[in-house]
Amino acid sequence: MPMLAVKNLERLMEIEADLKSQWEAKLADKETEVAKYQAEKKQLEAKLEKQRNALAEQQQKLAKMSSVAEDTSRMEQLNRELESRSTRLQEEVATQKKRIKMLQRELSTEREELKTFKQFDPQKMKKNLDASKKKLAEKISANDLLQKSNNKLKKDNDELRQKLKELEAKQEESDEKSPESKADIKQEETA
């Protein structure tokens, strides 16, 4: 029974090591993914800023050209296009922000799970396992010695019983052969 517990403990340690390696790889992947999306966010924000600057420049140009009646409609169309492009970029940035927040939540969840796995200290468990194995080996050797001693005593006891039976048989033989000697022995004892 103790050997099963030791095997189960060893199996548990192997499972724990496998789980740790799996989760650490997933966490590393998630962290790189978060870093990637943060870099994309910065790029998009820089792009958005450039677009805003370009939009501001375009609006200035539109203001200058608005004095000319025939170019007004063209400028308004360009302005609308820039605004819609800016709106799309802002929506894309908002989507990326949501995605980054979601990934950060997943990362924190993964970190919590990793933290729970780290509560099991493999070195301490291995040390306890080694100590248990040593105690078990000592008990087994002591048990073997007791078993050998017990077997020897049983053998000695059987030999003594055999001798006792032989002596009793000899006694009965001698008693049967010499009933007269019994009477003589009784007379000697009374005298």
| Most strands sheet | none
- Derived structural class: mainly alpha
Oligomeric state: single chain
Q: What's the overall average pLDDT, rounded?
A: 84
Span between N and C termini? 70 Å
Q: Give the overall silhouette.
A: rod-shaped
Give the low-confidence spans.
Answer: none
Helical element count?
A: 4
Q: What number of domains?
A: 2
As a percent range, the share of strand residues is: under 5%
> Over the alpha carbons, how many angstroms does the gyration radius reach?
48 Å
The total beta strand count reads: 0
Share of helix among residues?
over 70%
Series of secondary-structure elements, N-terminal to C-terminal: HHHH
List keywords for this structure.
mainly alpha; 191 residues
Can you walk me through this structure?
- Helix 1 packs antiparallel against helix 3.
- The longest helix has 64 residues.
- 0% of the residues are buried.
- Helices cover 95% and strands 0% of the residues.
- The chain is an all-alpha fold.
- It is built from 4 helices and no strands.
- The protein has 2 domains: 120 residues; 68 residues.
